[in-house]
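To the wet lab folks,

You asked to see what we're planning to order before we commit. Fair enough. Below is the target structure as C-alpha cells, and below that is the sequence we designed to fit it. If anything looks off to you, flag it before the synthesis order goes out.
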C-alpha cells in the first residue's frame, strides 16, 4: 500500500544579518518536507549560518553584498538541513544532489547581510494528502567484507523503501573463501532491531537471499542472508551454519575466474524510523 506524506514546511526566518533558520513546527505540527522523493521531519529548528559552508551554511564560497541567493532543504548522510547557494533551482546547490528549493534571499547593497527573504515552491501548512511510495533512487557503494572471502571485485547498491533499505551485493572472482561469510550494510546506517523478530546475534533472522555461481561446473547454489549485527549480515547454507556447506570448499585459489556470489536483502533502518508519516 502507498504511504501518505504531508508537507508542513514553515516560513524561513531572518535571525541575524548572517543567519537564517526554519522552525521545527508549523500550525502546531512538526515540520516535514519531501526532499528528492523521501520524507523528512525535524524536531529542532534548522539553523543556517551564512558565514560557514556545508550543510547549515553556504554551499561554497563566501557571502557577497547585493547578491541574490537561493535557499534549499538538502540531505547529507540522511540529515536534513538548510543550504544557501548562488545557484538557482535549474542548477541546484553545489555538492548536494538531494535538495528542494524553498526560498531566496538578497544581501544588502554594500554589506554581506541578509536584507530580505521570500518563500517559494513550498506547501505552507498541512498541505494536501498525497499518496506516494517513499522510494529513493539506487545509490552505489563498495561493500565492506568482514570475513569469509578475500580478493575479487566487490560492488553494491542500496535504496530506501519507506523505513527499509534494499541492498544488493556482488562479489566476482574472489581469490579465497573460508569460514563465516559476513558483509556490512552501507556505512552510517544501522539495523532497527525492534523491527527484527529475532535480532540478537545467534538468532539469525532471515532478511534476504544469496546465490553462489560455480561457473566451471555451471552450477548455482542458494543460501539465505540473515541478520547478524546492527551493521552486518551473514549467509546461511542449507546445512544451517554460517559456512556454506553445499559448496564443498569453493571458491578456492585457482577457481574459475567467472565464479561469483550475489546477495539481495531488505533490512529495517533505525535512522529512517519516524522520518515520514
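Sequence we intend to order:
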Amino acid at each position: 500500500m502507498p504511504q501518505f506524506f504531508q508537507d508542513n514546511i514553515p516560513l524561513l526566518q531572518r535571525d541575524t544579518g548572517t543567519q537564517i533558520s526554519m522552525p521545527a513546527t508549523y500550525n502546531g505540527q512538526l515540520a516535514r518536507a519531501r526532499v528528492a522523493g523521501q520524507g523528512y521531519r525535524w524536531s529542532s529548528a534548522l539553523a543556517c549560518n551564512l558565514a560557514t559552508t556545508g550543510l547549515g551554511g553556504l554551499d561554497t564560497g563566501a557571502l557577497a553584498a547585493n547578491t541574490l541567493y537561493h535557499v534549499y532543504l538538502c540531505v547529507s548522510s540522511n540529515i536534513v538541513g538548510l543550504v544557501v547557494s548562488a545557484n538557482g533551482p535549474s542548477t541546484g546547490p553545489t555538492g548536494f544532489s538531494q535538495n528542494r528549493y524553498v526560498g531566496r534571499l538578497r544581501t544588502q547593497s554594500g554589506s554581506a547581510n541578509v536584507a530580505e527573504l521570500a518563500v517559494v515552491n513550498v506547501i505552507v501548512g498541512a498541505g494536501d494528502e498525497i499518496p506516494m511510495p517513499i522510494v529513493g533512487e539506487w545509490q552505489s557503494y563498495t561493500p565492506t567484507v568482514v570475513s569469509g572471502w578475500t580478493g575479487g571485485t566487490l560492488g553494491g547498491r542500496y535504496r530506501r523503501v519507506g523505513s527499509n533499505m534494499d541492498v544488493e551485493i556482488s562479489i566476482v572472482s574472489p581469490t579465497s573463501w573460508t569460514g563465516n561469510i559476513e558483509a556490512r550494510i552501507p556505512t552510517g546506517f544501522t539495523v532497527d532491531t525492534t523491527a527484527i523478530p529475532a535480532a540478537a546475534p545467534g538468532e539469525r533472522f532471515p532478511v534476504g537471499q544469496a546465490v553462489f555461481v560455480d561457473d566451471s561446473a555451471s552450477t548455482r547454489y542458494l543460501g539465505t542472508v540473515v541478520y547478524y549485527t546492527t551493521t552486518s549480515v551473514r549467509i546461511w547454507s542449507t546445512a544451517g551454519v554460517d559456512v556454506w556447506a553445499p559448496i564443498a570448499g569453493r571458491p578456492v585459489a585457482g577457481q574459475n575466474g567467472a565464479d561469483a556470489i550475489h546477495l539481495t536483502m531488505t533490512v529495517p533502518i533505525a535512522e529512517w524510523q519516524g522520518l515520514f508519516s
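Structural context that might help your review: The domain at 4-131 is CATH 2.80.20 (Tail fiber receptor-binding protein). The chain has two domains: 4-131, 139-272.

Thanks,
Computational group
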